[in-house]
Amino acid sequence: MKYKTFYFSFFVFIFSFLFLSCTDMFDTQSSYFSTEETNSLSSAADTVYSVIGILNKVQAIADRTVLFGELRADLVSENDYTSSDLREIVTSEVTAANAYMDYRGFYAVINNCNYYLAKADTTVRVGGQKVLLKEYAVVKAIRAWTYMQLALIYGEVPFYTQPILKFTDAGKDYPKYGLKQICDYFIPDLLPYVEVEQPVYGTISGIDSRRFFFPVKLVLADMYLWQQDYKHAAFYYADYLAAGQLSTGLVSARVGSINTSDEVTSYTAPWMTAFTSPNTEEMITLIPMAGTRLDGVKSQLDNVFSSTDENDNHYQITPSAYYKELSQAQDYAYSVNERTLKHLSCGDMRYFATYPTQFVAADRQPSSDDWKTDDEDIQENRKFAAGHVYVYRVGTVWLRLAEALNAMGDYDDAFAILKRGGQVTTRGDSLLFEFTQTAVGVERYRGIHARGCGEAFRNTAYDLPDMSGDTLDVRVWTRERLMEYVEDCIVEEYALESAFEGNRFYDLMRVALRRDDPTYLARKVAHRAGTLQPADETLYNRLSNPKNWYIRHE
C-alpha cells in the first residue's frame, strides 16, 4: 500500500474526529478546536488509521530532531551556502525569527497522541485478545519520545497529557517541565507496556512497517539513561537486544583488498546497507519519509548534507575538520591470515562508506588531502540517500548499553562491546554477556569498533591499558580513570558510528552532566576545526553555561 493511500485515509479520519492540526498548537487566533467529547476508538480500523495519522505528524518534526541534535555539536561545520537559520543553530545563537524555533509541530504529535490515549478502548477483545493494546503501547512510546525531544531541544516546555479539544483550552497556563520531570512522569507511564508486542501492518512502500514504531523498552531505557539510573538503562537496552537476538556484528564496513605496498585498493560497505535499504536487522526504528513532495512529507536533510539538483550542488553542512581528523586517526587492523595482522593508515571505513566520493581507491592510499571536502563541488552523505530519518539502530543501542555499563563501573564489559563483540541474554534481572573469545564467529560477533576499523578483536593497539604485573599502568590507572578512559572510547565510537543521525549533541551532553563538567561539551564543540587548531572562544564561553544548551522559546 502506498503512503499516499494512508494519507488519504487519515485525511478522511481527521475530519471525522476533528484532530488538532500542527499549525493550531498554542495559536490562540485559531478556531479549529474540536468540541467532540464522546467519540471513542473501538475498532481495529479506527486505531490503525489514527496511528498512521500520528506517524504522519511525526514526519513533520523528523528533520528538526536531526538538525538540532547534530548542528549544535562537534562533527559538522557551516560553509558559504549555509542558510541563516541553520547557521544560527551551528553557532548556538538561535533567534526568535528562526524557522526552526517554532515547536508547534511537536505538540501536534503530542495532542494527537493525547486524543488517541483518551479515546482508545483497550478493553475491546476479539478472540480473547485486547485488539487495541499494541497500538496503545505504540502511541504511549511516541508521546514519551516526542516530549523527550522537546526537552532536549528547548529545555523546559509546556506539559499536558489530556487532549486540547476546545479553543478556550489553548491559552491555559500549562506547567513547564524539563527533561528530569518528563522522565519522572513517563518512566512509570511506560513500564506497564514493556512486554506488549508491536503491531504488524505489513510492508508499506517497501519497508516493514514494524520499523515505523518506537520500542517501549528503548524509549524507557533512554529515559533511565538520562536519569543516570544506569542499572535500569542497561537492563532494558540489553533486554531488547536479547529478545531480538541482536549481536554487535550485524554489519561492517571494511577494506576489500590492499596492494603489495599496503595501499588500499578497494573497500566494501555493507554497513551502509542499513541506510540505503533499511529492511535489515540493523535498523530498528526509522521515520519513513516520502520520496517527493507530491507523495507526502519529504525530508530536506539530503539538501542540507549533500549536493543535489534541488540545491544546485550547494550543500549547506559539511563534516567538521575534527570529525575527519578522528576518523583518519583510527588504526585499521587488516587480517592477512590467522597469524598475521597488518595496520593500515586508511582510517575508519565508515567515513568512506558515508562519503564514497572522498575515497581514492584506484591508485593510492587515502591521505590527509582526501579528507578536505570544502573545495569540492560535490558532496554525497549516503546516510540520507534513502530519504528517511533514523531513530534507533542496533549499533547505537549497543553503544548506549556500553555507556550505561561503564557508568555502573563495569568498564570491562563496556569495552568488550567495542573491541570483542558478542551478544547478550537476560535471566531475570541479570545480564549474561557472551563475548568473542577466538577468531571463530568474528563475522557475527564483531565489536562495534570493527564496523569501521577491521579486526579490532585482534588489534593490540586498541585495548585497555595493561594492568598486569607491577607496572606504572597499575599504579596510575585507578578504577575511576579506567572508567573515564572507556567513556572517552565510547564517545569517539558514537561519533564514528552514528554521526549525522541526530544524537551527537545529546551524547556529549550526557557525559558533561555525568562528569559535572559543562566545559566538556563546550571544549568538544569549540574544537570543530580540529584538536590542534585554536578553540572557538565565543562558542566555548557560550556553551560552558548549560543554560545555553537549549533553544530559548519565549
Overview in brief:
The protein contains 20 helices and 16 strands. The chain has 554 residues and is of the alpha+beta class. It has a two-stranded antiparallel ribbon with strand order 1-11. Strands 2-3 form a two-stranded antiparallel sheet.
Description:
It contains 20 helices and 16 strands. The chain has helices at about 5-15, 45-70, 85-90, 105-120, 135-155, 180-190, 215-225, 230-245, 275, 300-305, 320-330, 350-355, 395-405, 410-420, 450-455, 470-475, 480-500, 505-515, 520-525, 535-545, and strands at about 75-80, 125, 130, 155-160, 175, 205, 205-210, 255-260, 265-270, 285, 315-320, 330-335, 340-345, 390-395, 420-425, 430-435. The protein has a two-stranded antiparallel ribbon with strand order 1-11. The protein has a two-stranded antiparallel sheet with strand order 2-3. Strands 4-5 form a two-stranded antiparallel ribbon. Strand 15 (about 420-425) and strand 16 form a beta hairpin. The longest helix is centred in the first third of the chain and has 27 residues, at about 45-70. The chain is globular, with a radius of gyration of 24 Å. The two termini are about 40 Å apart.
